[in-house]
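Thread: Newbie trying to understand structure tokens

Hi all, I'm a second-year student working on a class project, and my supervisor (Dr. K.) asked me to get a predicted structure for one chain before our next meeting. I've only ever worked with sequences, so writing a 3D structure as a token string is new to me. If someone could post the tokens and maybe explain what I'm looking at, I'd be very grateful. Here's the chain:
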Amino acid sequence: MKARIAVLGGDGIGPEVTASAVRVLEAVAQRHDHEFQYVETLIGGAAIDASGSPLPSRTIDACRSSDAVLLGAVGGPQWSDPAARVRPEQGLLELRRVLGVFANLRPVRTIPEMLDASPLRPEVVRDVDIMVVRELTGGIYFGRKSRTAHEAEDVCSYTAQEIERVTRVAGRLAMDRRRHIVSVDKANVLETSRLWRTVVERVLREEFPEVRLEHMLVDAAAMHLLRRPASFDVLLTENMFGDILTDEASMLVGSLGLLPSASLGSDRVGLYEPIHGSAPDIAGRGIANPIGTILSAAMLLRHSLGLEEEAASVEAAVATALRRGTRTADIATPEWITVGSQAATDAVIAALLD
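---
Reply by user tm_fold:
Sure, no problem. This is what the structure looks like when written as tokens:
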């Protein structure tokens, strides 16, 4: 197979972890006789510094003409002025809109040999396997905004069509898993959540009657993710709730650095990125955990390129490397030797090519 992949390193540790993921993709190409072409371009703070825009037209063109987009992270203290008119995060939000990606998939799966990396007790996090489906282009992040010296407003709005399409994604995923969806909302307070609940019920009843639906208020979901995480299968949620809950869920596996994501739309082109931020405090030190980005590349292989065997082989290689004791600083424990980004990537590639 021949494929074109846009690589947007972004800011902070973003360029480092995307470089690791590209190395793994090259190993996959070598092993399975594929040809991947990479187009590197700018987004976020790096793009602001170079062009004044967090998402230059050149970047948009590169992404639109590619089969998939691999992203690192955006943001950093040098661009964090709340009064700034242009901010790195605007580039990411606009890229999601341009690509039409509306369903953000964030798998959370624990590995038996890694239970000690979680701050929770091993018996609590054992056998956790959750697929979070987060709606990505609606809600408070995209609603009308205004601010004066004395008040500010962020409007949260959803349409039935936006809720329907992300619910269908969750329904299809649930059918291939344990057929249980927990839909997270705040329907006791918010009108958007009441619409969310009504539409989710209708779509699943009419199109996925085999799927068991459970509604859960977001505060209860936050509690149960720590109390009984293994009881969740597919967790369906709106934009802001999903953003917050998946950061919380990262502690089930031990670190933000371990979790990947895929942002999908109606077309095959998807956006793939780790859920962590740019971590400017460790940028350039060679110690960032590349696993979340490597697993995002596995999702790229599966969802945009249709290479299921290759995707599964990357995920298996990551699990093998972790079982063998590959530990970056964020997941290190006393019995393991801490390694840097390059050695962690080497370990995954070695397991992949075994």
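A couple of things are worth pointing out once you decode it. The chain has two domains: 1-109+254-354, 119-253. The first strand starts at residue 2 and ends at 10. Feel free to ask follow-ups in this thread.
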